[in-house]
Write a structure and sequence with these properties.
Largest sheet: 3 strands, antiparallel
Number of helices: 1
Oligomer: single chain
Distance between the termini: 95 Å
Strand content: 5-15%
């Protein structure tokens, strides 16, 4: 009985162990953003033999149904990191000599300066040198017990 139970468990577990070695269909997380694998757009394609952190081998994946992409941007700019030669010259249009010139800009002048605050050289102190003794306030009128409350 136990031998049959153990053999049934082993048979049931074996396909699950080999399931990670099959192929995968790549579906991008966001539409319009391609998944690039070794210079191939693998969006909605079949990838076989991929590797990752859980794999013990480093074999290159095979992409079936992907589109090769170019790393060079299709713009008219020069990127030295791409290793391509720039286009020769640039499109410059020289204006005619007898054209109407724009008005001259208004004059602008601004200056900065720094100076001390306009105070006397010595200020009288806020507290006199010899303050008077403590002055006691007269008691407030009213019923007893509430005389010193505010």
């Amino acid at each position: 009985m136990r031998l049959r139970l153990i053999s049934a468990i082993v048979i049931a577990i074996t396909p699950a162990a080999f399931a990670s070695e099959g192929f995968n269909v790549v579906i991008p997380a966001r539409p319009g953003i391609p998944v690039i694998i070794n210079g191939v757009d693998a969006s909605y394609a079949v990838v076989e033999g991929e590797y990752g952190l859980g794999k013990g081998v480093n074999n290159l994946p095979t992409v079936y149904g992907g589109r090769p992409i170019s790393y060079a941007p299709n713009v008219g700019h020069y990127y030295p990191s791409l290793g391509q030669k720039p286009g020769y010259g640039r499109l410059e249009i020289e204006p005619p000599a007898n054209r109407k010139l724009p008005l001259p800009p208004p004059e602008y002048h601004e200056s900065w300066s720094a100076h001390s605050a306009p105070l006397p050289a010595t200020q009288p102190p806020d507290v006199p040198s010899y303050p008077p003794p403590v002055i006691l306030a007269p008691p407030m009128g009213g019923p007893p017990g509430l005389q010193n409350r505010r």
